[in-house]
Amino acid sequence: MYTLLSGLYKYMFQKDEYCILILGLDNAGKTTFLEQSKTRFNKNYKGMSLSKITTTVGLNIGTVDVGKARLMFWDLGGQEELQSLWDKYYAECHGVIYVIDSTDEERLSESKEAFEKVVSSEALDGVPILVLANKQDVETCLSIPDIKTAFSDCTCKIGRRDCLTQACSALTGKGVREGIEWMVKCVVRNVHRPPRQRDIT
Amino acid sequence: MIEVVAELSRGPVFLAGEALECVVTVTNPLPPTATSASSEALAWASAQIHCQFHASESRVALPPPDSSQPDVQPDSQTVFLPHRGERGQCILSTPPKILFCDLRLDPGESKSYSYSEVLPTEGPPSFRGQSVKYVYKLTIGCQRVNSPITLLRVPLRVLVLTGLQDVHFPQDEAVAPSSPFLEEDDSGKKDSWLAELAGERLMAATSCRSLHLYNISDGRGKVGTFGIFKSVYRLGEDVVGTLNLGEGTVACLQFSVSLQTEERVQPEYQRRRGTGVAPSVSHVTHARHQESCLHTTRTSFSLPIPLCSTPGFCTAIVSLKWRLHFEFVTSREPGLVLLPPLEQPEPATWTGPEQGSRGSAFCTREN
Fold first, then answer.
1. A76 contact residues in B (CB cutoff 8 A)
2. Interface contact B72-A55, CB threshold 8 A
3. Average of pLDDT values for B105-123?
4. pLDDT value of position B70
5. Segment B154-177, tens digit of pLDDT
6. Top-confidence residue, A10 or B343
7. What are B321-354's pLDDT values in tens digits?
8. Which UniProt keywords are present, listed alphabetically (chain A)?
9. Angle at CA of residue A150, ends A149 and A154, nearest 5°
């Protein structure tokens, strides 16, 4: 009887877990976005000073609960040398957030090339992609139409998966909640990538 | 299993502004013929230099923790944090440099990578004091996919020469090697140039010789004269001083002189308590000379400056100064010096001239 009640309790309150990759060039704001997300969606989370974020080598892990879903963020290092490791995480992920530095016009083509490799990978077929045009708090930043134009080569590769381009500022938090809520809707309804297997017993 | 070896080409002591060169060798140590031989894979390796600052809680009052929010995942084993698990806070670090990515090693195979980074000039020198510690390390992190990061730490010693921060490498190619027989490639030119300039500045600062005389007196009259030729020294040098006791009106039975450093916490960071105030100043004696000098008219002493000690410096939290500390045992009865005194000799303590009173020791300020 205890086992039945325990199982029922876990079944009613379990959260589906989804892994979300955060990709993009170095200094685009991936780790800042992760910190901002944790601050906004986790009530008890005491955020760190965003000015103390340094270059990521390896993997920042963060967990965010949104409704019945639990998002596990994997924030990967974006330096050029580290990008060859991204595809090792594709098979296990349910969503991709690609962060672009809207103020760095010089590296926009470099960012597009990295993005093209991401969406070209078969391991990410059907995986929703949220493109974040970050640093929109800066006055001189590129606008969403500018960025969409720069990335127009990649539209044919997106295919049938969900894709949204969202303006955001990870520093101020603008656009962060909307982006994540969109991602939650997409991963929940994506029947091709079920949530991570969890043992109920 | 993978073996990682880090080798510093010229030892662990550096001058701020110099380039640190390190060769990292990664080896799959299984012999090629081992029955269980298999290739090993590493996702990445990265290297970074950082300076860790630690303060004694009983002496130093740091700003409240609110203003310094915690590091992102300070104990994370998946992201490269060179100061993971260390006490104190990281106050300075260089950008991480990727040594390799996606490395596969067959049994018995080795690969070497070189790391080069200029040590920042805006940091403090290495220092292990009573109140604060500044510790530099080169940290190499390696990770397999889906495994924790393994850290290899190499302790460093960083010396800071005041005045070098403002010097920039000249843009023109007019800098010629000091010796016509030496040929240097471009990569080494800046380094040798900086070390050369530092050497020249040290030579200029520490070779100014002019005799400084100080009168030594106690309450009843003159004891003698202390003479010293320099106030700026290099590590490893000897502090040489002379004492002239022949013309004193007060007889000196014994004296001692100590070479000391004084570590002082800056006023705004001193720990204050209602009772039992912890000292904000502490002294360390590096060398001492003691001599019985009854009937001595002239003597001298030589105190070596240890190579492992820290030159004087000043940061926002702490300052270190060098000084000579004298103690004299004088006689009350000048006429009865041959007889044991009826009263205990009265020790008179007098602090001699501080080293580098015009600035820190080894400073390059002109006199």
1. none
2. no
3. 92
4. 57
5. 999 999 987 665 555 544 443 444
6. A10
7. 999 999 999 987 655 444 444 444 455 555 555 5
8. Acetylation, Golgi apparatus, GTP-binding, Nucleotide-binding
9. 90
Search chain B and give the residue with CA nearest A57. Answer: B80
Nearest to A79 among B68, B79, B98 (CB): B98
Whether residue B72 and residue A61 make contact (CB cut-off 8 A), yes or no, is no
Percent helix / strand / coil, chain A, rounded to 5: 40, 20, 35
Give B5's strand partners.
Answer: B25
Say whether A146 sits in a helix, a strand or coil: helix
Tell me if chain B has a CB within 8 Å of the CB of A92: no
Closest CB to A57: pick one of B69, B70, B96: B96
Chain B residues within 8 A of A91 when measuring between CB atoms: none
Query: E strands of chain A, at which residues?
Result: 16-23, 59-66, 69-76, 95-101, 129-134, 163-167
d(CA B173, CA A67): 65
**Separation of alpha carbons B345 and B223, rounded Å:** 14
Say how far apart CA B95 and CA B189 lie, in whole Å: 23
Residue percentage of chain B with pLDDT more than 90:
47
CB–CB of B49/B20 below 8 Å?
yes
- A46 has a chain B CB within 8 A of its CB: yes
CB A185 within 8 Å of CB A164 = no
Q: How many residues does chain A have?
A: 201
**Which is it for strands B313-314 and B298-304: parallel, antiparallel or unpaired?**
unpaired
Rounded distance, CA A144 to CA A193, Å?
Answer: 29
**Which residues of chain B neighbour A88 with C-beta distances below 8 Å?**
43, 145
Kindly state the tokens that stand for B295. Answer: 């009937």
B104 forms beta bridges with: B41
Identify the structural domains of chain A with CATH numbers, from first to last. 13-193 (3.40.50.300)
Residue pLDDT, tens place only, B209-239: 888 999 999 888 899 999 998 888 999 999 9
For A9, counting Cβ atoms within 10 Å of its Cβ (0-12 exposed, 13-18 middle, 19+ buried), the class is exposed
Active-site residues of A, by number, are: 79
H helix and E strand count, chain A = 6, 6
